[in-house]
Design brief:
heterodimer; A: alpha/beta; Peroxisomal Thiolase, Chain A, domain 1; 2 domains; eleven-stranded mixed beta sheet; two-stranded antiparallel ribbon; 16 helices; globular; B: mainly alpha; Non-ribosomal Peptide Synthetase Peptidyl Carrier Protein, Chain A; 3-oxoacyl-[acyl-carrier-protein] synthase activity (chain A); transferase (chain A)
């Protein structure tokens, strides 16, 4: 690039609503301690379903976080998104007064894979139980994958570029990358991330057809990627939102640059073709490193996709060494999502949040419930490992065939 | 059930269908305030119309969801209800 000062995308705020914490602080405390909060499914209407274990967000009170006029027209996944966006904007110290001055310079990007299942189920029950006249008009927007982007922008008065990544699980990373590109192209601030709420009975039934879904009933054994006991993934709800803005102007306004988004690439290898995902994921990693201008040896930690399906785990372990060479066997790899479950599009966004926190705290969080690794990886287990990661690689794959890799650098590394 | 839709019922429906809490006395004072200023968007008003149709078992005038203020809305929907029903 010939520009003297290329625009760089910085993370200045993080907001988390996750099964192990409804604030970034509580999420990190639980994550770094390697606590597993996977538990028996307790959601009403799910008791008789074959999904036994999930990562539920249990201490989130929507009415305490969101005004009633927004609650009545939105699903739980959007409640999470609005709350996480508030937390991220507070963290970035961007108040209504700041963004209100220049509403066209603030946009929103979210990814969603399951949409508003709980709201949709309620309205469909009205439809078949009472008739079409009893379906509320907000059904038209609440179920929709784009709802969170729209409602965050309306509620906060943002009028900048808004978009939605409609992809599978990897879409969470693609949303962050899209935000970074928008910032590099000239938008001041993008609120970006993903949240999901796929544990309503209807949503659970939709997932029962996935051969990758774990129906194990022991929370300690239901989701154990990279082990001989791998039997699929445990779904979860929750997610995270980031404030992404231009690094130099963020520093100018006194904001803390927590990390920079420096590289991303995405590939597609087909639904449930896990063997083929090896080449796709390796190619995504190479593309992300290339964009970041980094050598494989400069990656200090990898946050794995960790699907928990033997063939997919093997493909991921091989992809890491395919792309990183011998460094791939030495670099610490972790998958904290084994303690909270996979919240679809939001899972890799929570990993990106954990990656930023790991770089800030000099601590690589462990992979809960996972002990005997059957792949050639240095997987961090049992307890957090002290380290000084400056650069993190986050991987995501989706059941529909997307593979994404995102590279983040520690904020201090960017300034030096 | 009243034979006319009152300001109390409108206030109740605004809360139920659109999540907007306005006391009936206050709504009375804001009779000519736009629904948009009260926080009711077009889908919210459509939801209120749907609730009324289900309650009264009668279709509301087609323009009901286009009314701009509580006064316009109540005048229109009440004109459509059979008197003394």
């Amino acid at each position: 690039m010939s520009e003297p000062h290329p625009r760089r995308a910085a993370v200045t705020g993080i907001g988390v609503v996750a099964p192990n914490g409804t604030s970034t602080e509580s999420f990190w405390k639980s994550t770094q301690e390697g606590i597993s909060v996977l538990d028996r499914v307790t959601r009403e209407g799910c008791e008789h379903l074959p999904l036994r274990v999930a990562g539920e967000v249990r201490d989130f009170e929507p009415t305490a976080a969101i005004e009633e006029r927004y609650l009545v027209q939105t699903d739980r996944f959007t409640h999470f998104a609005m709350a996480a966006a508030d937390l991220a904007l507070d963290d970035a110290r961007l108040g209504q007064a700041d963004t209100g001055e220049a509403p066209f310079s603030v946009g929103v990007v979210t990814a969603a894979g399951s949409g508003g299942g709980e709201f949709g189920q309620r309205e469909l029950q009205q439809l078949w139980g009472k008739g079409s006249r009893f379906v509320g008009p907000y059904q038209s927007i609440a179920w929709f994958y784009a709802a969170s982007t729209g409602q965050i922008s309306i509620r906060r008065g943002f009028k900048g570029p808004c978009s939605v990544v409609a992809a599978d699980e990897a879409g969470g990373l693609d949303a962050l990358a899209h935000a970074a590109r928008a910032v590099r192209r000239g938008t001041d601030v993008i609120v970006a991330g993903a949240t999901e709420a796929p544990l309503a009975p209807y949503s659970v039934v939709c997932q029962l057809g996935y051969p990758e879904l774990s129906t194990g009933d022991d929370p300690a054994r239901a989701y154990r990627p990279f082990t001989e006991g791998a039997c699929g993934f445990v779904p979860a709800e929750g997610g995270a939102m980031f404030v992404v803005e231009e690094a130099a102007s963020a520093r100018e306004r006194g904001a803390r640059v927590r990390a920079t988004l420096v590289g991303h690439a995405a590939t597609f290898t087909g639904a449930s073709r896990w063997k083929e995902s090896r080449e796709g994921l390796a190619q995504a990693i190479r593309g992300a490193l290339d964009e970041a201008g980094l050598a494989p040896e400069e990656i200090d930690v990898v946050f794995a996709d960790a699907l928990g399906v033997p063939e997919a785990d093997r493909a991921e372990a091989l992809a890491i060494t395919d792309a990183l060479g011998a460094h791939g066997r030495r670099v610490p790899v972790t998958a904290p999502k084994t303690g909270i479950g996979r919240s679809f599009c939001a899972a890799p966004v929570l990993d990106a949040a954990a990656a930023v926190l790991a770089m800030e705290h000099g601590l690589i969080p462990p992979t809960p419930n996972v002990f005997d690794i059957c792949h050639d990886l240095d997987l961090v287990t049992v307890r957090a490992r002290a380290a000084e990661p400056r650069t993190a690689l986050v991987l995501g794959r989706g059941l529909m065939g997307s593979n994404s890799a995102l590279v983040l650098r520690h904020g201090a590394a960017d300034a030096s | 059930m009243n034979d006319r839709i009152t300001v109390e019922e409108l206030a109740e429906l605004m809360k139920k269908a659109a999540g907007i809490t306005v006391a009936p006395e206050e709504l009375q004072q804001q009779y000519d305030t736009g629904f948009d200023s009260l926080g009711i968007d077009s889908l919210g008003l459509l939801g209120i119309v749907g609730e009324l149709e289900n309650r009264y078992g009668a279709p509301m005038p087609t323009d009901a969801e286009r009314c701009k203020t509580p006064r316009q809305f109540l005048d229109l929907v009440n004109s459509a209800l059979p008197a003394g029903a």
